[in-house]
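Troubleshooting: if your tokenizer reports a length mismatch, compare your output against this known-good record of 570 residues.
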Amino acid sequence: MAVDQAATQQEPPGGSARTARVRTGWLREDFADRTRARAATLNQLLLGSVVFVLGILIAIGPFTGDVVLFFTGVVVIFVLTGATLVIPWNRVAFGWVAVVPAIDIIAITLMQLAAPGSALGLLWIFPTTWLAAGFGLLGLFAVIVAVAGIVSVLTALNEQQVTYATVLLPLVLIAVATTSHLAARRSDAQRTLLAKQAQLLRRVLERTRRQEQEVTEVLDAVDFGVIRIAPDGQVAVTNEAHGRLQQAIRSDDEESADPVGAADEVPAFRDDGTTRLPHEELPVERALRGEAFDGQVVWFGLEPGPRQALSITARRLTDSSGQDAGAVVISRDVTTELNALRARDELVASVSHELRTPLTSILGYLDLAIEDPELPDHLRANLDIAERNAERLLGIIGDILAASSSSTSVEASLVPVSIDARDIVRASAEALAPRAGGRAITIDTTGLEEAFLWADPLRIRQVVDNLLANAITYNRDGGTVYLGTTSDGSSSWILVRDTGMGMTEDERARLFQRFYRAAPARGVGTGLGLAISRDIVRAHGGELGLHSSPGVGSTFVVKLPASRSERNSS
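Known-good structure output:
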């Protein structure tokens, strides 16, 4: 490993292929160095063990051959075995190891000469396979030459007639040696391939660790929290900013080991800061159910204590096969921004309230002036224009005051009764029919069904009027507005759908913000109507939803409780 690292540090530009070859050679040589001593010892011990057993058998049994010559060969093999145990083969040149099997061949030849008719020649298998497997083609060639030469000499010395048995032993020895050579080549190739793969895996692992470290450092450097949720709902990754946000919204005496559910311990509220957020609508719960959403604002903490607002976004992830791979939940602290918006609303409400009293007085005196019979007609016309604009200004001030009031005060002003939503929708349609007729827009009320509500009729009429007025204003000439009501017994719905210009995703995300007006084509009004309508609906325990696509139109859906019991349960 130290050699590999040194090679990596000294690798010149453009020399990656040459370096790889050199590195592969180093790996092979390093492996050979580590196994040379072990291979020599094991091969020689195996031969020595077989010869030791043969020596014992011959010593205690009858032997017709030359005992002195036989045991000379045995002693030579035993001496070589002892030498392989003490010689540090890793420190001597590689070629000197071949001396051991060469001497073994000579020793076995002496043993074969001691008993020419015996099968002691089979012992040549040990040194010949060692040479063929450990010394490549040169070793195999040496084996073939040695076996052929020795068998020829022994046959000539013993004056034996050449038969099939005479040729069989050298052929078997050469075949076994060739097989050992090929097996060793395959084994060496496999070891080299494994060494390359191990080196490649090490580089990939190091690169992956560096990338993981870089991603971690980047995530820890940003000021928004990041949670990576696995498909099984377990938290895979979190960053330091997420931990800081969770710590900020917990009480000082609270501790939590769950980085995702820590915020769940603190009371959570909708973006208005007062409506309690149900547990199933918490951002993490929605993400675990497989939902994806943008910019859900959640307030944590109770007043008058410290509170924090988070804007939370969830994105679903998919793997290479298109299967769900979990989600990423991103949270951002927007407390300062929302407090600034609240301060703005309070300032606007204060100013509007101060303007309301003198404006009411102005309208009163204008009415008196207009009713004066001696007033010339041209002055009366001017005063009528002033009165209309003053009334419009008074209406704008009323919208601002309504938008700046809290949902608690809106809810306190409600006088709910059981009413049929059809009556409210029909009355609104009749009141706005002249405006729609001026642009040849059709108001379709065929979708009205019986749908009872537990609600304040005046407030719900205000909501329907606003939605229907928007549907007419932003519709195309000659278009259609579809109105509908329905109920399932526990909840009732009011639907207002137009065939107008529709809205983009960015417009939909900001539509309910106070004072927001989208494109210049929508630049009419104060931008408060929808914000007020949503506050009224939520004060009734309902919700105002929107579906819209550019060029297709928009659909607003008002969901309200159908009875007092459903309102109380919600």
